[in-house]
């Protein structure tokens, strides 16, 4: 320890300890040492402090890019299409006490759900697949979205169907991140318990103006809603992070740079296309000033086989050689799209719409990317779709004696069991894909029901339709019955 260290330690012992620890760390890891060539930028703040300072700016920048950037809009559309697709549909799997599927109850619930899905949310503007796409799009773009579950009779609310359940989609601004109250354990508008688990959400009572000028003035501006009535779909990167951060947080600068480069190149190409020739003047002593400088404008109309014979003494006509479009831009732009696709969690082919490559390469990309889409899909199902199904199930039972009768002999453990559909992985070569599926079925590695679900189809509906077609044609159905199809997975 040097004299300076001893002097600092005698006065500021904690600061001296941090100095010594930092010195020991940089002595081992070169990356921890700040040099002229290595800036060693750091993030020392807690997760909520970092998010609270940046979330609003990132959210608003992402919205601006969605409105004005075809790249950002295409990236969001690709992610939503591969996560939600035509809609994430629940398939109830309630069983009897003997372990068999309760076909009557499952079919009744499925029918009620299809009816409810016409008007599931409070505005009646979206059906269920459209509402899912809007919610997931908002969560990815803004970093988070809220859904309030409204079951049974709510003053001033009319449910869209006979099932007394609706939900309200709520954007991030309605849960004010500036609302802090340490005494009540409120962090960025979310009330937590001693284990940092959300117990209530404080949402604005008044509607925000279109320019979002209405902000939190005091605690009376919010209403407290218990966490069991709210689903919070948020992108979180750190442990005990309360609010979400936009998916574009690490890609905003790159997208903006690509857009600016594209715009510059387009302007340069337009300028180059508009320029025809230039006239090179000769020796200055040969130049004759025009008699009327205000009207000194020459226009030459180009036609095939023309002869230009009206040049002034000393003038020479030269063609302008343009290097636009810039051929070097294409590989540079492709590299930028690869980095951008990695940051957004998309495949390069889907983002750039460049599908060149061999079957093996395209297949490998699809398999890897389908697994990533599956991670996002499971996040949406667990945080949004599963709570919605539970609320729908609770509401469907209210006052429905037929459902209560059917539930008399079910296995209580299986009451909330449900499978959710997922967009199918596209096929590159259907012949090869089907050959692989046939081998799996022959070896007993999968079932018909599993294959149908992987393709985004309902096994019971497929079996039922095949039975109907066979009955119309006077044939025997070649597939198993609905009951047998479902029991294959058991």
How would you summarize this macromolecular structure in one to three sentences?
The chain is α+β, with helices and mostly antiparallel strands. 46% of the residues lie in helices and 10% in strands.
Topology, pairings included?
Layout lengths: L2 H9 L1 H16 L18 H22 L1 H14 L6 E3 L10 H14 L11 H15 L1 E8 L13 E6 L15 E2 L2 E3 L5 E7 L17 E5 L3 E5 L17 H23 L2 E4 L35 E4 L9 H16 L3 H5 L6 H39 L3 H6 L11 E3 L9 H14 L4 H7 L4 H15 L8 H8 L1
Antiparallel strand pairs: 1-11, 2-3, 2-8, 4-5, 5-6, 6-7, 9-10
Helix pairs in contact: 1-2, 3-4, 4-6, 14-15
What does this structure look like?
It is a single chain. By secondary structure, this protein is an alpha+beta fold. It has a domain at 3-32. The chain contains 15 helices and eleven strands. The strands form four sheets. It has a four-stranded antiparallel beta sheet, with no helix packed on it. β4 (186-187) and β5 form a beta hairpin. α3 crosses α4 (70-83). The longest helix has 39 residues, at 359-397.
